[in-house]
Design a protein that fits this description.
Porin; mainly beta; 14-stranded antiparallel beta barrel
């Protein structure tokens, strides 16, 4: 009974009950999930992103999420961006599995001739499949009067153990770009606009509309240091998530085709956790890791241990300029 109560409290505390979407601590490093307007919004030809999150291992069966995405721009019209995102989420003792595939598209609109001010409206179409393993759960009928006996029948009549639905979303991203070390972007997105039914039984359980707002900037402090402040707000039904904080970026090298930079950041998730993050740019690669230090009502069970998260990004360019270390001048010069 204590375990059942703990799991119920956990579901409601983290806001991931049947009507809620997943969430990330490194939300800036999963651009297609953050806003469909981010599709194709990068310097390069193709962008590949992978994310993995594992949380609540110290409390119950871990909640784990894996996401993979890829996006690009149409060759004949570089203003049009497109991308696809896939994620697989497994949570709780019943191993509730959520598999979702999302298609995203965006279009770049220049608000000024010099492209300093731009906006990218976008659309999102998703297919969501959920499945629960009833055999992994315990029921009262399996108690023989002395102890729990998993061989006893549950006497439960489940109508179904899976559900598939489709969702529609939209959003837009505004960017002020002065140079590569001074820029600001902000976006708004609406997901599950059609409120699909995801109930396993005859009763309809509509997936709540999720509103996402974000803002982030990059400010040059001196020759090597940059400040990267960020803010993210998600609203979905009764669920509220506010994350704010900043990273510091230190550029190790940026010349002759070589680029190295490291990041260190501290963020705060309202009434839930402090988030520590580190990362590194290595030419076309980025790798980041974060950890949630939990201080919510689950602390007695979690011992302040929340979840660990990884992010990897790779940007592919068709044309790679040669790395010329020196040039030989003709004798007549």
């Amino acid at each position: 009974m204590q375990k059942v109560i703990l799991i119920v409290v956990l579901f409601f505390t983290v806001g991931r009950f049947f009507s809620q979407d997943i969430h990330w601590s490194q939300f800036n490093d999963i651009p297609l999930f953050q806003n469909p307007g981010n599709a194709g919004h990068f310097s390069g030809d193709y962008r590949f992103v992978a994310n993995y999150r594992n949380q609540w291992k110290s409390v119950t069966i871990p909640f784990s999420t894996l996401s993979i995405s890829a996006d690009s721009k149409i060759y004949s019209n570089r203003n049009v961006g497109y991308g696809i995102l896939f994620f697989n989420d497994v949570s709780g003792d019943g191993k509730l599995r959520t598999i979702e595939i999302q298609a995203n598209g965006s279009y770049l609109i220049k608000l000024s001739k010099d492209s300093v001010h731009t906006i990218r409206p976008g659309v999102n179409f998703g297919m969501n499949h959920r499945q629960v393993n009833w055999d992994q759960l315990y029921f009262d009928n399996q108690f023989n009067g002395i102890s729990f006996d998993p061989t006893l029948p549950t006497n439960e009549n489940f109508q179904t153990d899976r559900k598939t639905n489709f969702s529609i979303g939209t959003g837009a991203v505004y960017e002020y770009y002065r140079n590569k070390r001074q820029k600001v972007s902000a976006g708004i997105g609406f997901y599950n606009i059609n409120r699909p039914n995801q109930g396993f039984y005859g009763t309809k359980i509509n997936r709540d509309i999720r509103l996402n707002l974000f803002a982030k900037g990059l400010y040059k402090l001196d020759v090597d240091w940059d400040l990267v402040p960020t803010f993210n707000l998600s609203l979905q039904g009764k669920y509220r998530e506010v994350v704010a904080g900043s990273s510091m970026k230190y550029t190790l090298i940026d010349k002759l085709g070589y680029y190295r930079a490291v990041y260190g950041g501290l963020f705060y998730r309202n009434r839930d956790a402090a988030i520590l993050s580190v990362g590194m740019d290595y030419n076309a690669w980025f790798a980041g890791i974060s950890y949630d230090i939990n201080f919510s009502k689950l602390v007695p069970a979690s011992n302040a241990r929340g979840g660990i998260e990884f992010a990897v990004r790779y940007i592919l360019n068709h044309f790679k300029p040669s790395k010329s270390l020196h040039r030989v001048c003709p004798d007549y010069i």
